[in-house]
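Reply to dn_fold:

You asked what the input looked like. This is it:
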Amino acid sequence: MRRLLRSRARPASKAEQPAESTREALEQVHTSGTVENRDAAVPRSVTAAIRMGYVELAHKRLDRWRRKYFAARGNAVNAAMKRYLSAGSSDQERAQLAALLAETEPEAVTEELARHAHKERLPLKACASFRQLVAIRARRGQIAGSGPEWRLNSKERGYAFAARLRVPHPQVYVRGVTVDELEPRQQVVVKPEAGAGGRGVYLVLGDGRVVDLRDGAELPGWPDMLASMRQDLTSGRVKQDRWLVEELITEDEGGLYPGRDLKFYCFYGKVGLVLEVRRSNANAYCEWDAEGNQLFSGKYDERRFEGEGATAEQVALAGRMSRKIPAPFMRIDFIRSATAPSGMSFCEFTPRPGSFHRFEDAFDRRMGEYYLDAEARLERDLLRGKSFKSPFSGKAKRVRQAR
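and this is what came back:
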């Protein structure tokens, strides 16, 4: 502590001065007294460094504390496993150990623990984390190039892929134009040629009103939309001034009621989650499993509505499409349609969904189990010689992942 107090005598250098987001994150750790969902309190030395603005020092001390925590956690679980193995296996003791292992983080799993858990068929459920698997996939892309799912990230390739599978998609009217080149239209969608998370996407209704897809805000008309698009470019929400204009899919023939989104979280042939989104003054959400039961992921608790869900045929269609993609996960987005034979029209592929880290822990693990199962099934299919058609066959150009 004396060393820390002495360091206060000199002003923090620019490198040590916390960026506002970093400072807020560290303050949140201090306020909650936890790291993620850990139950151990943050040491006072970390708290002191946060308050004094020494971000690098706080991170080092926090990392040291985390290592000690996971080492202690691993030792405790290993000891429990040894007691279980030596004392016999009553149903009660097995249930208690299974509950303990279900909460044991991957950082605390030792080789010995993994070996015994496998032999005793005790699941390490906390190791199946969707947020971690998606993050690892992103890091793999940085090291060795993006996975094959990113070949479908462009709107043009996505539509071409859907068309080959005879899945209807919106008609594209204009492509590759700048904001200044856009001409007024009604009952269309205006969006960037490349992007993610609904950033810069606008729905122009049949009566000329415009809805900003990202937050559901309503704009009076076309000139207001152009002003908002320029702001998107200035702020960096949209990277390039290249836009496309396509048909607006609606649930009515007058083009006044945009079709609800049906976003299928697909795991190589299986659907783990259907997210239904209602676009209005404030977006609202409803979550379903593949059997039509409502789910609660913890991500949209304050913005829910009673939706209608997806039919069994719609779930099956999304699952079949994902089975054509050599990747463990892909979100396939549709729009409910009054005219499409299946009752929905293809919208886009989303290899890495926005805010994927915000599922509550139990739901995150549920999705992680789907991911690992898909990874194993895909691996078996590839070993058996399954091939995938264009755009996955042949040598691909390096694909940039959406930010």
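The chain has eleven helices and twelve strands.
Hope that clears it up.
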